[in-house]
Design a protein that fits this description.
By secondary structure, the protein is of the alpha/beta class. It contains nine helices and 14 strands. The protein folds into two domains: 1-133, Cytidine Deaminase, domain 2; 141-307, Dihydrofolate Reductase, subunit A. Keywords: Multifunctional enzyme, NADP, Oxidoreductase, Riboflavin biosynthesis.
Length: 308
């Protein structure tokens, strides 16, 4: 299942409105098929893995990160039916599909066909891997990552506005990889007009993964952070600045993940990373974030926090 979860990340940021699913088929102790949801949502991970496995899928075990779909579509048959037709012997599922067209029905159909189903394997990791799809289903909006690159004293630029570069090349490459994992990237109007950021992915081989660019503006399509709920085919949104836009998303409770890059420099007087958060007491600032990962990127450190 861990391998299937890793495969699912290959599709993250490109499959909306479908989930980014991973699938591995194992026969006689060997992997005979691998699949992940393709750009635009089709083919599904199971269909890709079954096509690779061919006849070797008969009697094999299928590991899939999300319950196989049970509804037919003009774009392809139900994955539960494909697995039954292929004659797999067992299906191991990480989590159920909240889509009402499948919810529980995919597993039931497999069991009715005599296929053993084991659900709940690495469920927590799967929920993290498909956070965009699940957040859209549960809350009606994209999963939001807020990215900040600061000095040790929390500054994003000198008083003059100079900000290139706060972090080093390894941290910037990591940030570009993060961009490639989102369908859209958002900045405030001030950042857009003053800095004119390109907001693309500049990593060899991943240039085509550049996300859609959005600008938060009082006169634009997106005027408030909660307008992101209306975005079509965007399940993962990366917010990159500036300080007032970042603060607006935090105040609205719309940040699910905080990506904080810290450079080992001190800037003193300069531009802060965040505007006013509307806090009324220091106590209200505590308990909102949980550290989920940290690593060194050259001389810089990246810290990942999940919202509580």
């Amino acid at each position: 299942m861990a391998a299937a979860l890793a495969l699912s990340q290959r599709g993250r940021g490109r499959t909306a409105p479908n989930p980014n699913v991973g699938c591995v088929i194992v026969a006689d102790g060997r992997v005979v098929g691998r699949g992940w949801t393709q750009p635009g949502g089709r083919p599904h991970a199971e269909a890709m893995a079954l096509a690779q496995a061919g006849d070797r899928a008969r009697g094999a075990t299928c590991y899939v990160t999300l319950e196989p779909c049970a509804h037919d579509s003009a774009r392809g048959p139900a994955c539960a039916d494909l697995l039954i037709a292929a004659g797999v012997g067992q299906v191991v599922v990480a989590i159920g599909d909240p889509d009402p067209r499948t919810d529980g029905l995919g597993i039931a159909r497999l069991r009715d066909a005599g296929i053993a189903v084991e659900p709940g394997v690495l469920a927590e990791q799967a929920r993290g891997a498909m956070a965009g799809f699940l957040t859209r289903r549960a809350q009606g909006r994209p999963f939001v990552t807020l990215k900040l690159a600061t000095s040790l004293d929390g500054r994003i630029a000198l008083p003059s506005g100079e900000s290139r570069w706060i972090t080093g090349p390894q941290a910037r490459a990591h940030a570009h990889l993060e961009r490639a994992r989102n369908e859209a990237i958002l900045v405030g109007r001030g950042t857009w007009e003053i800095d004119r950021p390109t907001l693309d992915v500049r990593l060899p081989g991943l240039e085509a993964r550049s996300p859609r660019v959005l600008v938060l503006s009082s006169s634009g399509t997106l005027r408030r952070p909660d307008d992101i709920a209306a975005l079509e085919n965007v399940d993962h949104l990366l917010v990159e600045g500036g300080a007032e836009t970042a603060a607006a998303f935090v105040r609205a409770g719309l940040v699910d993940r905080l990506l904080l890059y810290r450079a080992p420099i001190l800037l003193g007087a300069g531009k802060p990373a965040l505007g006013d958060l509307g806090l009324v007491s220091l106590a209200s600032a505590h308990g909102r974030w949980r550290l989920s990962d940290t690593q060194m990127l050259g001389s810089d450190r990246v810290e990942v926090y999940a919202a509580n």
